[in-house]
Design a protein that fits this description.
It contains 13 helices and eight strands. With 349 residues, it is α+β, with helices and mostly antiparallel strands. The structure holds 2-acetamido-2-deoxy-beta-D-glucopyranose (3 copies).
Length: 349
């Protein structure tokens, strides 16, 4: 049902426009342009309080719990100051580490990848829901017998939406119909519908809740003939967002032995590395062109590549990139990688 709807409306996955649902964000608009790597005392203070809230599990500075809350406090958006509490960070990390400990495939994720793509409590600027307790409890049983993170990811994308009655459905053009987009998991659950962005955020959070590294990937505008490459001008040209999951090497018997990132469309059937937009129109996109490139979101502000990466030429482009959020076009506060080349070359890496 959801899949049919998605195919029917495949070309148009408009999330929202401009400030149409600014009211969903009960916090002041942040300044455009983020200071890269700025240290601030409040982050250390928050990390210290979160370690205390973790109790014995967070007592040692090098414990997994301490590293988790430390990473989030150091990288979280400035706008979350005063919104995300030490207790929230502690609960979030305790549950993320619990999911990591529950299966061989979750614990095999390198800790740095765990920090960046399992531990975060948010994808973009969506309202800060406490989704992890709910989704962990609901979804852990669904992946209990999964032999690999590939199997877990495919099960979650097939079963997640039907955990509610009525189920959650894809709904394009919500703001145009007068309804703001549903962007955080709890608001999507409440509404039982969302556009591609809300569904992608929800799928990423669901995957993170069971310990699978995941991120939202998307493009502002398809570079189709007849599209002006201006995402705010033409609904029919985009935007579109989807999900990538990271699989450890040799994820399952019978599955291709491929460590790295693989894509899936939220609420689409067909498993990993198969979606309506691949290979076309994804292969029309171009690296290094903001409006028609494909970006993978990171947690926290844009980060400049390290000096080593710049010197070796492995970071391209050699600058801090932001994820272009078409629903908040001027907001450059979410970091991103330009992953267009992967889609031009085949899709997974
Ligand atoms: C979305 O809205 C645009 C313009 O408002 C319209 O052209 C398009 O047909 C709509 N798409 C759907 C699937 O309703
Ligand atoms: C989608 O959710 C919104 C918010 O709850 C609701 O107003 C709208 O009717 C829903 N759309 C459909 C088609 O169910
Ligand atoms: C990119 O999109 C922005 C926002 O819609 C627009 O102002 C700009 O002209 C676009 N750039 C190109 C090259 O189309």
């Amino acid at each position: 049902m959801a899949a049919l709807l998605i195919r029917a409306a495949a070309l148009i996955c408009v999330t929202t426009m401009a400030d149409a649902h600014a009211w969903l964000r009960p916090r002041p608009l942040r300044a455009v342009g983020t200071v890269v790597g700025a240290a601030a005392g409040w982050r250390d203070e928050l990390a210290r309080e979160a370690r205390a809230a973790l109790g014995a599990a967070g007592a040692a500075a090098e414990s997994d719990g301490a590293r988790c809350v430390g990473f989030l406090a150091a990288r979280m958006p400035d706008a979350d100051r005063g919104v995300v509490s030490a207790e929230f960070l502690a609960r979030n990390c305790a549950l993320a580490l619990g999911a990591r400990a529950r299966s061989a495939w979750a614990v095999s994720v390198p800790f740095d990848l765990f920090l960046e793509y399992v531990a975060p409590y948010a994808c973009f600027d969506e309202p800060r829901d406490e989704w992890r307790p709910l989704l962990s409890e609901l979804l852990a049983p669904l992946v209990a017998g999964a032999a690999s993170s590939r199997e877990a990811a495919e099960r979650i994308n097939s079963l997640l939406w039907r955990q509610w009655d009525p189920p959650i459905r894809f709904m394009p053009n919500q703001t145009r119909a007068g309804h703001p987009g549903q962007l955080s998991p709890l608001s999507v659950i409440r509404a039982r519908n969302a556009s591609c962005t809300g569904l992608s955020i929800m799928l990423v959070d669901a995957l993170r809740a069971v310990g699978v590294p995941a991120r939202v990937v998307g493009t502002p505008c398809w570079a189709r003939a007849g599209c002006s490459h201006d995402p705010l001008a033409h609904d029919a040209c985009g935007n579109h967002n989807w999900v990538e999951v990271w699989l450890p090497e040799g994820a399952s018997a019978g599955a291709p032995r491929c460590a790295g990132w693989h894509f899936m469309g939220a609420a689409e059937e067909g498993g990993l590395d198969s979606a309506w937009f691949f290979p076309m129109p994804a292969q029309l996109q171009r690296p290094g062109a903001l409006n028609v490139s494909i970006f993978a979101a990171r947690f926290g502000p844009p980060l400049a590549p390290s000096a080593e990466a710049r010197a070796s030429g492995s970071a391209w482009p050699p600058a801090a990139l932001h994820f272009p959020m078409v629903w908040a076009w001027g907001d450059r506060s979410v970091g991103a990688d330009d992953v267009s080349m992967r889609y031009l070359e085949g899709g997974s890496a």
